[in-house]
Amino acid sequence: MKYNATSASLNEMEGSTTGNPSAKYFQIKNIHVQPFWIVEEVLDGDSLKVKQEFTKESKEIRLYGLDAPEVHLSRKMREDEAKSGIPASLLLQYGMMSLDFVLQVAPPGTRVTLLTEKNNQLDFWMRELAYVILPNGDCLNELLLQNGWAKASHNYYCTRLPYFQEISRLAQINKQGIYQYISIF
């Protein structure tokens, strides 16, 4: 009897053998699954206000592992302007484009599942960090990065950050989203 070794496919290594694009997120160690949330308001390209479908509890969610341009003139907008050398007025336009993308894929009323890493639940401002899983199984965080409407950021660390950095770089190389107009932001 001869033994034939086989190697794992990319889907198996990513933990997604079911065909569900978000399966790899549910397999993160110490992940807290919160189903039955509804998008109440899209605040910008990386923040949402959500409401629990049954208890009506409301909270602000910051997306893990990414940063999108701001949609209001603020302290952060001035910091981003100084770091990137891009005028605030232009960053503001890119922020609105990012916001529009989120409104297209997760408009108010969209039912979502929130996934939070138990060891990394809150940001500096005490907002809950989350992967946002859409009804079709896509991860909103991943869609923003793949389509170039946000960039990977270690400021909102998560287990999937190395993967997010990779897909963010691919969006930059392929001139997706904001990268159609500028090479960095």
From TrEMBL:
PROSITE patterns: TNASE_3. InterPro entries: SNase_OB-fold_sf, Staphylococal_nuclease_OB-fold. It holds the Pfam family SNase. Gene3D superfamilies: 2.40.50.90. Residues 39-181 form the TNase-like domain. It comes from the Bacteria. Signal peptide: none annotated. This is Staphylococcal nuclease homologue. The lineage of its organism: Bacteria, Pseudomonadati, Bacteroidota, Flavobacteriia, Flavobacteriales.
